[in-house]
Design goal:
Elements: H1 7-35, H2 38-59, H3 62-75, H4 79-115, H5 121-127, H6 134-146, H7 150-177, H8 182-190, H9 192-218, H10 227-238, H11 251-269, H12 271-287, H13 293-311, H14 316-334, H15 338-365, H16 367-374, H17 381-406, H18 410-435, H19 437-462, H20 472-496, H21 502-527, H22 533-537, H23 541-558
Helix pairs in contact: 1-7, 1-13, 1-14, 2-4, 2-5, 2-6, 2-8, 2-12, 2-13, 3-4, 3-6, 3-11, 3-14, 4-5, 4-6, 5-8, 6-9, 7-8, 7-9, 11-18, 12-13, 12-18, 13-17, 14-15, 14-17, 15-17, 15-20, 15-21, 16-17, 16-21, 17-18, 17-19, 18-19, 20-21
Length: 559
Amino acid sequence: MLKKESLLKGTIILAAAALVARFLGLFQRIPLDYMLGNEGNIAFTNANQVYMIVLMIATAGFPSAISKMVSERYALGRPDEAQRIYRAGLLFGLIAGFVLAVALFVLAPLYGAISKEPGSVMAIRAIAPALLFFPLVAMMRGYFQGRQMMSVGGTSQIVEQFARVILGLLLGWLVLELGWGDRWAAAAITFGSVFGGIAAFAVMLRFARKLKKQDASTRKPARRMNAEASAALRPSFSSPSAKTPSGTLTNRGIYKEILSMSIPSLVTSMSINLVLLFDVMLFNRLTNNFYTMVEAKAVAADYGIKAISLAGIPPILAIALGSSIIPIISSAFSLKNMDEVRRQASMVMRIVCFTGVPVALLLAVASYSVTGLLFAGPSGSGPVAALSAAAILQITMMTSNSIIYGMGKPRLSMTHTLIGLGLKVAVSIALGPLLGIYGLIIGSAVCFIVVTMLNLRSINGIVKLQVLGARWLPYIAAVALSALAGWGAELGVLTLTSAWSNKLSYLLAAIAAAAVVGGLYVALLLILRVIRPEDVSALPRPLRGPFNKLLRVFQRAGA
């Protein structure tokens, strides 16, 4: 039986699914560094970045809007309207996916001309058919998230990644064995996304049929919403374009309501992909005075295959929290339960501070060992470190965007995101010719921190967040000391094992850095009393016991 999940349980499910999916994606990129040359790696990166942007346009921000609207309707006793919203989303996804799949296939040569990478055209065309499936999958995931059934989307995501990675790599290997070269191999590997789309769609159909039967067997008369909640949604319900004279919600009204939320959501959700697309699409043009042609090819390949994939690991929790928190905050906000909104938003920000930051720190300080261990060599470890450090700011940006969206203020986050993207472009254009890839990464970091600060100011204008308060200084001290110690541990092990085989040296150095960063970080949070009993009580039940014991031990030691 499909059941609702709490914020923490839903977040854990989505984070676990995203972590598995991310590692599968990383598993795909590791052999690419051995299988393909620079041209093939660049083609693969470009195809995936273009595809992600087009996919977001194809869904037009509908999944988040559907999640929010479905959650509100069920909270207020209007399940029939939720079903009509779901069907309207599926219709939009079907049409938009087909139109944009054709457009992407036809316009692929234009991207090759703009980016000065004609080798990417074939890979972009190979991934285009995936748009026939993924917009529908995205709409279905949004509906299940609105019903607070996170495990459904998580399951489909894992199945999708297995099919995409395994079948794509097998097809790419076969093409290389036939001697067709890097361009054909990159296209074959990106075609794995089509297999992933088919697999994910099949999984979502299975769950949709199961939920339909379950709803039919448990359907109850809709309860009457209270007057306050009714007033909260009256503008969208009573709009003349939203309903017929008989009071039936129409597709036109649904699309009007969705688009009022989804366009801002589309801008904010595309921000990371737009930042990365800007970097890979205009890399040659912005850095041609800094690198030689050969250097530019190598740096661009390392950035796309190594830096983007590794720096994408730390934000996984923020992505999961965002998907989980939107329907929960939306339900509380629609019922004017501001205390619950404050509690949930504050808890989410604390969770990302405690858990997302150390992962980014580890990848930043141990980038040389991690890159050398996973890939053909440690080249590109500098951009890996810089982009991983910037991911700390990306995490807070993404989480605060989700909170604002759940509060029904999507235009605020859209405005803040547009300001950040404008600064990204300006800083990258100014610094790219002077600092190369690091100039582009600094531009991204400026974007992330500005959007975060603007978001937090707006959230505090609605509800006062209670994140860490007076604990910020000891928290920053714990982060800084852990990073410094982790860097020292990596450097020491690399020095001691310099005569050993490279892979073994990288492995031991990465393990040492992880142990020091992770262990010291947790210990300092407890010793400096950054983590308190109320924070431990919010953890999943299996973790509460061990953390309570550690908390007592360190508090006695510090007394």
